[in-house]
Structures are given as structure tokens and as C-alpha cells.
Specification:
With 267 residues, the chain is of the alpha+beta class. A hairpin with a 4-residue loop joins strand 2 and strand 3.
Amino acid sequence: MALWKKPMNSGQFEERGWCHIPHDPLLADWVAQVLPVARAAVADPAHAHWLRYGGTWFAGVNVLDPAQAPGGPPETSIATRAVRDQIGLPSAGWGPGQVSVCYPGYPQPMDGESEVAHRFRVRRDAAHVDGLKGEGPEKRRFLREHHAFLLGIPLVVADSDASPFVVWEGSHEVFRAAFATLLAGLPAAKWGNVDLTDVYKQTRTRIFETCRRVPLTARPGEAYLVHRLALHGMAPWAQGAHAGPDGRMIAYFRPELDDPADWLSAP
């Protein structure tokens, strides 16, 4: 077996809530194999409903068929070994992946979106925490998905300002503390009954004021690992930014935790 060097400092992930995973030939080979699958998913008429914001974003949730790209990148790649060794989670059974594609002009106004929501998307990158779903006419936030982490794997080359993924450093610990206080004394099985909206919005505002916003970019064969509680979003496409005909295409994996209680307690 080839020697493997840890791709990151565990302290960086724990403190910042994200880390860059350097180029790995095994991951690059996986990207080359999965790119035609991703292109087919984007072109599939059955997935046309994922094209939004005036045709500038293909959201592509769960369209990367696990039968054709089983469980994410290969077991021996640096990305999966980083997840296993730094977070203590297995790299198998990740389920289907998202294919997120941005095009020049993102974001254009979308039917049914309020002016306030569009402005937040433009000025604040539609910043959010995954798994907190807005429900009802007032979009009250409830915990519906218990992700273990977020792994982003670029599938094509694009400019660094072509709608990059952005994360607020250290925001995962700010949210962890806020939610731990709100949910104290409740079993994890009942967390989904708690309206998190007010604490979520108040904490998000504090994060905007105190945490550094960092755009994350990588090339095919590289990846980035993001904490499940980190505030993150997607920046607008900068004027003059360039990408190929595929746009800015990234595969994301967000596997579910076996134990919902780990959503707050796990690294």
C-alpha cells in the first residue's frame, strides 16, 4: 500500500470549520469517470425542475446516481481517508450526490422569490446551515436532516470568482453553542419539533459580524471538507468570471449521521 500523508491539519478543520484537500490522482481519476454521468444528469429532462434563477443555477440535489458513482469518491482517495481519519466517519454508504452547476449571471430573479430573499442571495450568498428546512408560509426553520459533513468535489475548471462556495470561519462552533443551549435537556428524537428560526437568525447575524467570510476554490482532483454546522453559501457570478461550457460544476456529498445526537456532539 502506498504511503499516505494527512492532507490537512486536524486543528484547522476543528477551528475553522473547513479544510482544503490537495490534489490526489485517485480522486482526479474518479472525477474523470463521473463527469459524463454528471453531464447526463444535468441534461436529463427529468431533472429540468432543478434549473433555477433564470437558468443560472442547476441545483441538482441527489441527481448523481450512486449506481454509476457508488458512494462518492474511491475508498482509497485522500478525500475519503480525510473524512474517516479526521472526523472518524466511514467513507462508504454516502448515498446519491448533488451536482451543483452555476452559469454566468447567477443569480437572476426567480418567480415566487421575494425581493428580500433575492437581495439576501445576492448580498449574503444565500448563507445557510444544511438540514434546517424552512416550512410553512413564514418559512420557520426545523431540523430535518442530520448531515455528517459536506464534501465538495469540483468536476471542471472554473475561475475562482465564478460563483465559489463560501464559508464563515468558526461559525460551526457559534451555531453549536447556540443550538446546544436551545435544545438542552431534550432528547435528540425531539429536536425536530423545536422551532429554531429565531435563534438561527440571531446567530447568523452575529456570525456575519464576527466571522470571516472565505471563498473556497479547488480544481478537479482536489476537494474541500466543510463542517455540517458551518454557515455557508454560494457567491454571485462575478463580472468577467469564466468557466467552460459546463459552467461551474461541483459534486457535493452530505451523508446522514446514524445517530441524530451526533449532529451537535460529534467533531
